[in-house]
Design a protein that fits this description.
This protein has one domain. The chain starts with a strand and ends in a 6-residue tail after the last strand. Strands 2-1-3 form a three-stranded antiparallel beta sheet, with helices on one face. It contains two helices and three strands; from the N terminus they run E-E-H-H-E. The structure holds zinc ion.
Length: 55
């Protein structure tokens, strides 16, 4: 399964569920160092998408 999250900055983050939280947290650390979200919060915002979305 893959998950997708649209960041408020406009970036659309898509990754397989195994990597998803780490991928989102890497984006936050790189682009939004003042923001930190827990795994539960990130998963609450995520939407399941088809695996073909993962580049
Ligand atoms: Zn962002």
């Amino acid at each position: 399964m893959a998950l997708q999250l649209s960041c408020p900055c406009g970036t659309r983050i898509t990754a397989y569920d195994d990597d998803f939280v780490a991928t989102v947290q890497a984006h936050l650390a790189a682009e939004h160092p003042d923001r930190a979200y827990s795994e539960d919060e990130i998963l609450a915002f995520a939407m399941p998408v088809d695996d073909t979305w993962v580049g």
